[in-house]
């Protein structure tokens, strides 16, 4: 464990972040006096979590956190020793450790993304009249975990609740993938390269869609190989950019012409922001 003298000691010039783009970016809270070291540790865990699939070397953690490498090494070594981080001996990269997963399993019942999103999804379905879907990430896949039907008589059930597909297949999945870090996106797409072929698409096409989503801030596309159906989607992220899920709205193409997209994006963005606020109020940022 970190000794109090290490965890809670006032920062020296060597330990201080070199800019506001360092560790403070990942956990923007006002630390109680004498507890800044604890907040910094939590921020470092968020940095590793954002790159958990590929893992991170200490030098990479130090660079993103804007910490001197000896300081980062001391903190990372301590986190590894208590099980908050785990080091792969072959790659020398750090991943989230087993103790965090154990704690998460205990805490998970108190965080239900489907329950949090359902009122906003219901409101969107009622207001816009179209189908609203919620997608979350599971490993290298996107999974539809909820669907709310609108009042428009022609339904567009493009994916069933519980359906699992490679990340990057479907508007919601594209939006969610685009919210991840570039390194994570590359890892996910490369892992799914062969799997995309069974959906008659390619890794290059998925990357192009991800880049478009990043530029626009949302997804607007035809449902894969169903040109008569279109979708608009947006990711739900925390205050530090952590991607929690994505909401997509699907309808027959005539109901989502380009001139209606701003209206739908505006309604979607409002609800996504409301959801993000609820998540932040529960302490998940």
UniProtKB/TrEMBL annotation:
Source organism? Chelativorans composti
| SUPFAM superfamilies noted in UniProt | GAF domain-like, Winged helix' DNA-binding domain
Q: Does the keyword Transcription apply?
A: yes
Q: Which UniProt keywords apply?
A: DNA-binding, Transcription, Transcription regulation
Protein's name according to its UniProt entry: IclR family transcriptional regulator
- Report the InterPro entries cross-referenced here: GAF-like_dom_sf (IPR029016), HTH_MetabolicPath_Reg (IPR050707), Tscrpt_reg_IclR_C (IPR014757), Tscrpt_reg_IclR_N (IPR005471), WH-like_DNA-bd_sf (IPR036388), WH_DNA-bd_sf (IPR036390)
Q: Give all residue intervals belonging to the HTH iclR-type domain.
A: 35-98
Q: Domain IclR-ED: where?
A: 99-281
UniProt-annotated stretches for the region Disordered: 1-20
Superkingdom, according to UniProt? Bacteria
Coiled-coil intervals, chain numbering: none
């Amino acid at each position: 464990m970190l000794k109090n003298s290490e965890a809670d000691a006032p920062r020296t010039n060597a330990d201080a972040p070199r800019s506001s783009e360092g560790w403070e970016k990942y956990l923007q809270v006002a630390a109680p006096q004498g507890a800044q070291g604890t907040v910094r540790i939590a921020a470092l865990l968020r940095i590793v979590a954002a790159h958990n699939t590929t893992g991170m070397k200490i030098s990479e953690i130090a660079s993103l956190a804007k910490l001197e490498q000896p300081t980062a090494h001391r903190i990372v070594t301590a986190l590894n020793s208590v099980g908050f981080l785990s080091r792969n001996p072959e790659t020398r990269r750090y991943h989230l450790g087993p103790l965090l997963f154990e704690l998460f399993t205990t805490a998970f019942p108190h965080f239900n993304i489907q329950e949090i999103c359902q009122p906003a999804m219901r409101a969107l379905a009622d207001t816009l009249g179209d189908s609203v879907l919620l997608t979350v990430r599971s490993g290298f896949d996107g999974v539809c975990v909820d669907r709310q039907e609108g009042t428009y008589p022609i339904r567009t059930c493009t994916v069933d609740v519980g359906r699992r597909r490679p990340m990057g297949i479907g508007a919601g999945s594209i939006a969610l993938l685009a919210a991840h870090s570039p390194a994570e996106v590359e890892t996910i797409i490369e892992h799914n390269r062969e799997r995309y072929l069974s959906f008659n698409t390619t890794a290059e096409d998925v990357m192009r869609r991800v880049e478009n989503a990043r530029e626009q801030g949302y997804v607007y596309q035809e449902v894969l190989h169903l040109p008569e159906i279109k979708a608009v989607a947006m990711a739900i992220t925390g205050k530090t950019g952590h991607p929690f899920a994505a909401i997509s709205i699907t309808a027959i193409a005539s109901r989502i012409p380009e001139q209606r997209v701003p209206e739908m994006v505006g309604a979607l963005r409002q609800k996504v922001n409301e959801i993000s606020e609820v998540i932040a109020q529960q302490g998940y940022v």
